[in-house]
Design a protein that fits this description.
binds protoporphyrin IX containing FE; about 400 residues; metal-binding; Cyt_P450_E_grp-I; Cytochrome P450 2D10 isoform X2; two-stranded antiparallel sheet; alpha+beta; Cytochrome_P450_fam2; 3 domains; iron
């Protein structure tokens, strides 16, 4: 046979694909340096991970692994080492102790940060460094949920609470189902929009705002799906093809619309010395010495990352609370009694938390009991981490599940 026949583009493509598969499999089976924590290994482990990814059951699989392997589960996906932290103790040690915390503070960029969050110019998916610390200080200053800020926050939330209760009463009176997820999601968007804009005129809270933020929220959430993230991360050409291209285009397009209402409309009407909401608070810092790095993309990053960080998690925790109380009516009853004895008919204030011990305890327990976020990779190991005769290799992604979230809360 002529040797050149073997070099057709088709044969070369097949050979490249085979090499890729062999490379991926070798990463799955080759033993790493040191002694990594236990986890699914070899062919059986590979199939378990594949299955969990295919039928979207990583969470369930992770709980099984936690029982089998103890404090940490270590495995690799397409050559990427991953370590799930399974107990509060190990999370405290790795993320909170002086010995390890600097090694686990980085949060790597991912596809979503690239498309939606200005390639790390926000305060979530960033390596931990002096600028990150500066950004955190700025975030706390800009939120301003203290002093007069609390009164404003209470009034915004109080109005929304009235509106939600009215909507629920109408649905109940007319025998309709109460779409609690949509109601909460819409309300949270309104509250966040008002906090960013400082605009509390209900007339201006047109449906457009909620729809625009809904589109952006849904587009980013579709990209955050574990399978989609894996496909877009490991096979970048897919970003230009079929359904993956649509997912990417939706994020890019909905982001442009969201930027208009969350940033451009505000920047164009901003007046130095007048702070309407948190967008103005951060725009003010753009002209302050020492903040030269705070360009427009950083401001947009701050605002959109805050929107997602606040919206996704709060919506999930409220929905989880409703779900848990549905299963524990006796707890709901005790909360109701506390509300009636402390608040009566008036709207709650932030300071009421101090007198509502039972309700506060249920909220904290619920944060511990149910995961508020999908299992997704947040922190990464900056160096090899030696812990209890085991080594978590540099570059390992730490998946944060319900344990870490409850410890942080
Ligand atoms: C129940 C509600 C919430 C939950 C469960 C939650 C959970 C989390 C978690 C797990 C992290 C990552 C920490 C890590 O790196 O391991 C985080 C970070 C963050 N969250 Fe929340 N969050 C909630 C509400 C909010 C709200 C309301 C806001 C904003 C108003 C917010 C803003 C942020 C920001 C800015 C970060 C990054 C902080 C930094 O790196 O300094 N979160 N949150």
């Amino acid at each position: 046979m002529d040797a050149c026949c073997l070099c057709t583009p088709w044969n070369l493509a097949v050979a490249a694909a085979v090499l890729c598969v062999l490379y991926v499999l070798s990463k799955q089976f080759v033993f790493r340096k040191g002694n990594p924590p236990p986890g699914p290994r070899g062919w059986k482990g590979f199939m378990e991970i594949l299955q969990a990814g295919r039928d979207d059951s990583l969470y369930e699989a992770a709980w099984g692994w936690a029982e089998k392997y103890g404090d940490m589960t270590f495995y690799t996906v397409l050559g990427q080492p991953i370590c799930i932290l399974n107990s509060a103790d190990i999370v405290r040690r790795l993320m909170g102790s002086d010995e390890y915390k600097l090694l686990t503070s980085d949060r790597d960029l991912n596809v979503v940060s690239e498309f939606a969050w200005y390639n790390g110019k926000e305060l979530f998916f960033t390596p931990y460094n002096s600028q990150t610390r500066q950004k955190r200080t700025l975030f706390h200053k800009m939120m301003g949920i203290y002093g007069e800020g609390v009164d404003k926050f209470e009034s915004v939330v109080g109005n929304e609470l009235d509106r939600i209760l009215e909507e629920m009463d109408t649905a109940r009176a007319t025998g309709q189902d109460i779409p609690i997820s949509q109601i909460l999601s819409r309300s949270l968007k309104i509250i966040l929009y008002v906090l960013v804009n400082g605009d509390i005129d209900p007339e201006k809270l047109s449906l457009d705002v909620v729809d625009t933020m809904d589109r952006y929220d849904n587009a980013v959430n579709r990209m955050l799906d574990m399978q989609t993230l894996t496909a877009l991360t490991f096979f970048p050409p897919l970003r230009k093809v079929g359904k993956y291209k649509k997912i990417c285009d939706d994020v890019t397009e909905s982001k442009i619309e969201a930027e208009k209402i969350m940033f451009e409309d505000l920047k164009s009407t901003y007046q130095e010395g007048k702070v309407r909401g948190i967008a103005d608070a951060i725009l003010h810092f753009q002209s302050q010495p020492g903040h030269e790095w705070l360009d427009d993309e950083n401001v947009k990053g701050f605002l959109t990352a805050t929107f997602f960080a606040a919206h996704m998690t709060t919506r999930a925790s409220l929905l989880n609370m409703v779900l848990t109380l549905t299963h524990h009516p006796e707890v709901a009853q005790r909360i109701q009694e506390e509300i009636e004895s402390v608040l009566g008919d008036r709207i709650p204030r932030v300071e009421d938390r101090l007198s509502m011990h039972y309700t506060e305890a249920v909220i904290l327990e619920n944060l511990r009991y149910v995961s508020q976020l999908a299992l997704s990779s947040l922190r990464s190991a900056r160096e090899d981490i030696h812990i209890d005769d085991q080594v978590i290799p540099k570059g390992t992604q730490d998946l944060e599940g319900r344990v870490q979230i409850s410890v942080l809360c």
